[in-house]
Design a protein that fits this description.
CATH architecture: Orthogonal Bundle
Largest sheet: none
Helix content: over 70%
Oligomer: single chain
Order of helices and strands: HHHHHHHHHHHH
Structural class: mainly alpha
Number of helices: 12
Distance between the termini: 9 Å
CATH topology: MetI-like fold
Shape: globular
Length: about 300
């Protein structure tokens, strides 16, 4: 167990480092710079800022500076001077998590029962209806589904605000948007995994021994069928908790995803590299958690480095 955790920790550090490096290099190679939009700035002031942020240094020296300051948590924000990157992440992440966590619960709460019902009644009206709705959910992007939900629940029914982060229930519409989309994936994975598990030999053996259908499904089949779903939920949870930039743009939510997009547009190397590294660290952490849960559910999987 300890060897596995140490190995995964070292691999995670490498993954975060490479993610940060690739993000930084791609932004540096893209046209433009962090000071290009400052039209009212004199050339002397711009030269001072270039010197201050080391933008005239070789690219490897600039990256080393960003990496070193990121490790000690003192990374400045190139575009929005006076605000640290750590402060932006600390303020943006809770907002994204407040949307992502309910969205994850909605996805599991809707997708697992729908997929299980479809798997237990293959070819029935329930199966076809569940798969039709899941296909629509997968095909409908949040850029389309979000405005539709805002139109119905915000403009027509006046139940919620359609944009902004002002009231305690402003998380509902963006969470519902993301939850419905991810519920479609969860339903299809649940159906596929449960159908495959129900066809295995140990399920027939359990039925032959007189086990009830409820015990067969919930005690034997569903536990093993959840393994592919867990593999999906690890990265999905990381993506939801760190912010969906499309949904945050649609509902004007000041979460972490919107900061990442603005950082890329404004060539904010420090903020873009830090948010990409933070997202990578979340994926590494959730994948590690999924591996541990899978080993608990199915000991034959084991924890291998």
């Amino acid at each position: 167990m300890a060897r596995f955790l140490i190995s995964r920790l070292l691999q995670g550090i490498v993954v975060v480092f490479i993610t940060m490096l690739i993000t930084f290099v791609l932004l540096k190679k893209a046209p433009g710079g962090p000071l290009d939009g400052e039209r009212a700035m004199s050339e002397q002031a711009k030269a001072q800022l270039v010197e201050l942020y080391g933008l005239n240094k070789p690219i490897h020296i600039q990256f080393w500076r960003v990496l070193k300051l990121a490790v000690i948590g003192e990374l400045p924000c190139d575009k929005f001077r006076g605000q640290m990157v750590s402060d932006i992440i600390r303020h943006g992440f809770p907002i994204s998590a407040a949307i992502g966590l309910p969205a994850l619960l909605i996805a599991i709460g809707l997708g697992v029962p729908a997929g299980a019902l479809a798997a237990l009644r293959p070819g029935s009206l329930e199966d076809r209806s569940a798969m039709l709705m899941s296909t629509l959910g997968i095909c409908a992007p949040s850029l389309v589904l979000g405005p539709l939900i805002a139109l119905v629940f915000g403009l027509k029914l006046n139940w919620f605000n359609v944009a902004g982060w002002y009231d305690a229930d402003d998380w509902v519409l963006p969470s519902l948007t993301l939850g419905l989309i991810y519920a479609a994936y969860v339903a299809r994975l649940t159906r596929g995994g449960l159908r495959e598990t129900l066809a295995q030999e140990f399920i027939r053996t359990a039925r032959a021994k007189g086990a009830g259908e409820g015990a067969v499904v919930f005690r034997h089949a569903l536990k093993l069928a959840s393994l592919p779903l867990l593999n999906f939920l690890g990265p999905a949870a990381a993506g939801l908790l760190t912010g969906s930039f499309v949904t945050e743009m649609v509902f004007q939510i000041p979460g972490l995803g919107q900061h990442f997009i603005s950082a890329a547009i404004n060539r904010d190397y420090a903020l873009a590299s830090a948010t990409a590294a933070f997202y990578a660290a979340m994926i590494v952490g959730f994948n590690l958690l999924v591996d541990i849960i899978q080993a608990v559910i199915n000991p034959r999987v084991g924890l291998k480095s």
